[in-house]
């Protein structure tokens, strides 16, 4: 199941199926998509219950699929929802991230690992691969050679190596603290920065949007200062 808890401007989303290492079936994918789209929180913190972040797709479900392509598109849609969410999405990886779990983490804006985190794309060992956008995002996050090594070997990468490769940005004892750190900032600025850095339009269009967003935020900032002065 997917649990959500709202802590002010921070939404905590927990993949809570520890008996299956938080492997996801279609219902959980739908619930995860809803958890990150149906919220006004400025920051969403995604993590797993127990000793795993997420083992990816439930293999019992995969083995019984009548339409594997539809299931792949389902997972892609959820990963896209994480990436396109108006909220900043922070993945806290404490334990194992495997297959689709890695792919969902790749779609998040910030990936933070605990020292116990491990990562792998083991599908190649039994004739599969990550089809929730993993072949698209992995080579954008990692250098091409590192991405191919990780995806084609199926090897397990620990937190320190994941940090060195750029798979995560930090290794900390409490990944949630990073989400809280981000959530302490102004929501409008967070949304603008995420939107600007995710913008893949031509440079001139990006720069025009950047200037317009800066104009709007500066005017709001000036209005706040003026209001504070009037109160004094």
Automatic annotation (TrEMBL):
Pfam families: ECH_1. GO terms for molecular function: catalytic activity. It comes from the Archaea. Belongs to the enoyl-CoA hydratase/isomerase family. This is Enoyl-CoA hydratase/carnithine racemase. It comes from Halogranum gelatinilyticum.
């Amino acid at each position: 199941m997917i649990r959500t808890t709202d802590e002010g401007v921070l939404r905590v989303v927990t993949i809570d199926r520890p008996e299956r290492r938080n492997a996801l079936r279609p219902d959980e994918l739908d619930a995860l998509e809803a958890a990150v789209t149906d919220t006004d929180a400025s920051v969403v913190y995604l993590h797993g219950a127990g000793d795993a972040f997420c083992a990816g797709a439930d293999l019992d479900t995969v083995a019984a699929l009548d339409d594997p392509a539809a299931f792949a598109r389902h997972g892609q849609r959820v990963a896209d929802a994480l990436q396109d969410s108006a909220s900043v999405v922070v993945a806290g990886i404490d334990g194992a991230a495997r297959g689709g779990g890695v792919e969902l983490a790749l779609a998040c804006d910030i990936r933070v690992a605990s020292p116990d985190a491990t990562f792998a794309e083991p599908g190649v060992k039994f004739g599969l691969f990550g089809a929730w956008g993993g072949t698209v995002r992995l080579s954008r996050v990692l250098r091409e050679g590192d991405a191919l090594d990780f995806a084609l070997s199926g090897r397990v990468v620990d937190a320190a190596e994941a940090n060195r490769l750029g798979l995560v940005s930090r290794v900390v004892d409490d990944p949630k603290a990073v989400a809280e750190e981000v959530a302490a900032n102004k929501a409008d600025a967070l949304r603008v920065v995420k939107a600007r850095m995710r913008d893949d339009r031509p440079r001139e269009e990006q720069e025009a949007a950047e200037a317009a967003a800066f104009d709007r935020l500066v005017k709001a900032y000036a209005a706040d200062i003026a209001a504070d002065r009037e109160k004094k």
